[in-house]
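Progress against Task 2.4 (sequence-to-structure conversion) is shown through the following example record, which the project officer requested during the mid-term review.
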Amino acid sequence: MIIGITGTIASGKSTVSDYFIKQGYEVIDADKITKELQQKKEVLEEFREIFGEEVLLENKTLNRTRLREMVFQNAEALKKINQIMHPKVREEFEKRKREHAQEKIIFFDIPLLFEAHFENLCEKILLVYADREVQITRIMQRDGSSRELAEKIIASQAKEEEKKKKSHYIIENNGSIEDLYQKLSKWEEMFNENCRSGRK
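Structure tokens generated for the chain above:
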């Protein structure tokens, strides 16, 4: 079974993934896949052709800071990046899923699950969410971003209420890591019990 983990930026998806990794589950991380793909020469060349030399650093690696600025200042730039990356991420996910076919449960951590229309890759979807002000504070503290940029990043993603309607399970994460882990432990217990009883 593939369970998608999603949510808007700074909602705590990575912390949720870390929990399941510690519990012994296989987690496929879309962000890590993306970063690995963006190190490939042919992908960097696609970025350079579309956005120019400014998206590359002097050592010819991707200038992620500049790319992020461009993306959240220009909706068309985000669309072009997604057109490059989404098919490649999907292909790599399918490859890794086959490599771990023996696993009963695989978690797929993907922030843009709904935006990329990857719902059909998952049998169940677990949404992690946090209040808007909590998200903004986390982005500013984590990335050193301005409040304006943090708000633009959040606004570029699908609305939280829409994601909730499409998700099978919802975990609120406005508190501490300890609070989140307690909620995940209860969810895991409930989910496994439902699986044993055939309810899922």
